[in-house]
């Protein structure tokens, strides 16, 4: 099984439980909503739709749509996409990989990677960012959110299922370097300390870069 197949199988297996577990806590933090709102104001929807890359059950996609963006979701997992389509039938969701986006050069007005690079090896991130840059129009923003740290967190048998996957943590400085290697200009950096009320063990970082 390839790494991509393993990621897809993991999320296919836990999709329903994941969606239910985080139904009330996803985007519960005011800062998360503020960052996404700022991204929406920076996006260039008049020059193409906006992509929620690694959309999972579609909640970020729906939040951005409520702000008026012409947004669609893309994910590896058919299970996650089934949840997203059921919960938000008015929105568009498709299956695909950030390493090979099914979009023409310069066709998107913005992109969000909301904790969706956390399974990509560090040495492949410049290729991911270069692929995202390819599909964005000049000046369009990319928002990247991730957990901060140096040691991966292993999720073993989540919700009692026989699957395992490592969730990588990154340093904002290193992520900014990798975005630059992928052809982006990092314009905004924000760091949030762990929220104990949500059971967060590590800080979270948000970078907004421009093509």
Essential attributes:
6 helices, single chain, 9 strands, 211 residues, globular, 23% strand, two-stranded antiparallel ribbon, 7-stranded mixed beta sheet, alpha/beta, 34% helix
Summarize the structure in short.
The protein contains six helices and nine strands, in the order ααβαβαββαβββαββ.
Protein described:
The chain is 34% helix and 23% strand. By secondary structure, it is α/β, with parallel strands linked by helices. Strands 3-2-1-4-5-9-8 form a 7-stranded mixed beta sheet, sandwiched between helices. Strand 4, helix 5 and strand 5 (141-147) form a beta-alpha-beta unit. Helix 5 (125-135) crosses helix 6 (172-181). The longest helix has 19 residues, at 3-21.
Oligomer: single chain
Please estimate the helix content. 25-40%
Residue-averaged pLDDT: 88
Which class of secondary structure composition applies to the elements? alpha/beta
Shape: globular
Main sheet: strands, sense, barrel: 7 strands, mixed
SS summary, helix count: 6
Estimated radius of gyration: 16 Å
* SSE sequence, one letter per element: HHEHEHEEHEEEHEE
Low-confidence runs (pLDDT<50, min 5 residues)?
none
Strand content range: 15-25%
**What is the spatial order of strands in the main beta sheet?**
3-2-1-4-5-9-8
- The overall strand count is 9
How far apart lie the N and C ends?
34 Å
């Amino acid at each position: 099984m390839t790494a991509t197949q393993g990621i897809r199988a993991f999320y296919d297996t836990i999709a329903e439980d994941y969606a239910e577990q985080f139904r009330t806590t996803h985007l519960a933090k005011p800062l998360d909503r503020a960052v996404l709102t700022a991204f929406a104001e920076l996006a260039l929807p008049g020059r193409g739709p906006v992509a929620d890359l690694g959309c999972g059950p579609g909640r970020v996609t729906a939040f951005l749509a409520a702000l008026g963006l012409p947004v669609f979701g893309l994910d590896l997992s058919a299970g996650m996409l089934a949840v997203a389509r059921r919960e938000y039938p008015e929105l568009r969701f498709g299956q695909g990989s950030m390493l090979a986006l099914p979009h023409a050069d310069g066709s998107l007005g913005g992109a969000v990677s909301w904790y969706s690079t956390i399974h990509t090896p560090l040495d492949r991130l410049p290729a991911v960012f270069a692929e995202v840059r390819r599909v964005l129009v000049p000046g369009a923003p990319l928002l990247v959110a991730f957990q901060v740290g140096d040691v991966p967190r292993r999720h073993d048998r989540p919700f009692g299922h026989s699957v395992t996957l490592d969730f990588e943590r990154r340093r904002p400085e290193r992520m900014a370097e990798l975005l630059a290697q992928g052809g982006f200009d990092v314009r905004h950096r924000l760091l949030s300390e762990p929220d104990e009320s949500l059971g967060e063990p590590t800080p979270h970082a948000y970078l907004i870069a421009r093509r």
